[in-house]
Amino acid sequence: MIWDDETSLPVIKNKGVMGTDDENALAFFKNTKVVCKLSPRLNHNFPTMFTHHQKTITVDTRAQTSSSKREIISFIGGIDLCNGRYDTEQHSLFRTLNTEPQVNDFYQTSIPGASFRKGGPREPWHDSHACVIGEAARDIMRNFEQRWEKQFDPSLLVRVNKITDLQHDYSITETERNWNVQVFRSIDHVSVPVNGNLRVERSIHEAYVEAIRRAERFIYIENQYFIGGCHLWEKDRHAGCWNLIPIEIALKIASKIKAKERFAVYIVIPMWPEGGPESESVQDILHWTHETMKMMYGLIGEAVRDSGENWHPKDYLNFFCLANREDENGGEYVPLYSPHYGTQYWNAQKHRRFMIYVHSKLMIVDDAYMLIGSANINQRSMDGQRDTEIAIGCYQSLESDRQTNKRDIHGYRMSLWYEHTGQTEEVFQDPESLKCVVMMRQLGEQMWQIYSGDEVIDMEGVHLVGYPVHVTQEGKVEDRVDGRVHFPDTKAQIKGKRCKVLPPIFTT
Description:
By secondary structure, the protein is an alpha+beta fold. It has two domains: 1-40, no CATH class; 53-507, Endonuclease, Chain A (2-Layer Sandwich), CATH 3.30.870. Helix content is 25%, strand content 19%. The chain is built from ten helices and 19 strands. 43% of the residues are buried.
């Protein structure tokens, strides 16, 4: 079941606005035993502008506890089954273009006119996904069944109760790691059958808010977008982006400042959303992101001021992005053609740099609880009546005393930080500490200088860069003190610009 981009028209070979290859996939499976359906996001007001954004796979496999039994296993997260998603932690720009899979999977949608024939940089991809077993895996499968039954012939589904050797007793599922998993969704009655008066499910938004309110030490977020709390923005308060996640984070920090307790939030987002950075839609989204940052730092700055202490808002909240820069290495792919002089493409090749696209939808709280799924932090994903989404919230418990076991979630965060920083510092064990915050902030600034400088200096596997804005002690978000107002190699404004054509409902 693939989201149907209704702007893709196979008759005239139009790939559609999103370039999902949905029509190609449908044609590929034609006359095979695979039942492939294109599923439009049913919405009475905007039939083509919202999407089925869920990304799940469910299969039956040999049970872990018995060689004679089978069990349901589901995969869930941010990774689309499409081109350009494969990558390694090196996130190479140029050096892998003459190797598999980049030869046949060159992907670069954030530089207009880019193609393999003209060479790199490719668009590196960072994402997160989860594997689920047990009852939660069944819940993920049930979500698929509900959506299918709403739009297609239910008799085409394989009924699980017909799998004779399927394991039904979850009490014998391997419990050494004691994972507790709950499935959340953003969806409405148009896409799934509902009972009673419930017409919209926003449980992903509710899960984020609840987890933030319960946080005690720190929050770590990776997300493709970060937009919300428009009713407290400086401008555009009626943009309709009312989700509470950014406000809840700012209020949590403010409460910790008032209590004189340490707390830290690290947020990793892409430099700009996918697409040409100077395009109206991308500039619009950057504008919303900038307004969100201003609102958050404003609330935190006010809390610092009220405390009477000499603290800084960035002692508590920091935004980062990921990027790479490679010096020339022998044996690289030599493109057949060159980009036009002076374009973003030409500049990126000359300076041998590009952002790493953050596509994760991940939040870790206190190394004890994790949310991971398909939902971005914006109104489209959190609304329930716009894009459909699915996610899981999970934690581990110690069976002996019911305390939280932080082993695997802590290990996952540490592995992500190692991937981004190339380091495993002892201070990473205490992410809420000011020492850790200062170290990450200084590293981000150092790597930004290397990334944005005129001289080509290899970043040597350290990809974390500070998001290029300046925050004052009062909590005002301004242009960088070095005067840079555009992303390197582009004419795209870092703070974005409000689009006069697109209504906010599409870009928030």
